[in-house]
């Protein structure tokens, strides 16, 4: 039965429906990749730099940079994951 479902399965689409939440997603995406996101990412990097100087370790700076880069790029990653499609093995 499982093999039959795998062979004759239909195309799966992720992220379909839910258009009523599009304005919310666009606002969050604008905040994260707009001026607010840049300010927060810069603050994370600055706090990481200060923490690295205080602790005399580069790891706090690396964590701040990673957090800032992750915050800015997270909408792109989420869009890539949610808009992925799975095509059937046998067409």
Quickly describe the structure.
The protein has 91 residues and is mainly α. It has four helices and two strands. It has a two-stranded antiparallel sheet with strand order 1-2.
Average pLDDT figure? 80
Q: Largest sheet, described in full?
A: 2 strands, antiparallel
Low-confidence stretches: none
Task: Give, in order, the helices and strands.
Answer: HEHHHE
Structural classification: mainly alpha
Radius of gyration: 20 Å
Separation, N- and C-terminal Cα atoms: 19 Å
Strand order of the largest sheet: 1-2
What does the overall shape look like? elongated
* Total beta strand runs: 2
Query: Total domains, how many?
Result: 1
How many helices does DSSP assign? 4
Fraction of helical residues:
over 70%
| Beta-strand content estimate | under 5%
Written overview of the protein:
With 91 residues, the chain is mostly helical. It has one domain (2-12, 31-86). It is built from four helices and two strands; from the N terminus they run αβαααβ. The protein has a two-stranded antiparallel sheet. The longest helix has 25 residues, at 58-82. The protein starts with a helix and ends in a 5-residue tail after the last strand. The model has no long low-confidence stretch (mean pLDDT 80). It comes from Pseudomonas frederiksbergensis.
């Amino acid at each position: 039965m499982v093999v039959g479902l795998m062979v004759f399965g239909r195309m799966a689409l992720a992220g379909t429906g839910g258009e009523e939440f599009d304005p919310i997603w666009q606002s969050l995406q604008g905040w994260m990749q707009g001026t607010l996101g840049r300010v927060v990412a810069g603050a994370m990097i600055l706090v990481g730099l200060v923490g690295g100087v205080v602790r005399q370790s580069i790891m706090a700076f690396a964590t701040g940079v990673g957090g800032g880069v992750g915050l800015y790029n997270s909408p792109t990653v989420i869009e890539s994951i949610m808009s992925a499609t799975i095509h059937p093995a046998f067409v």
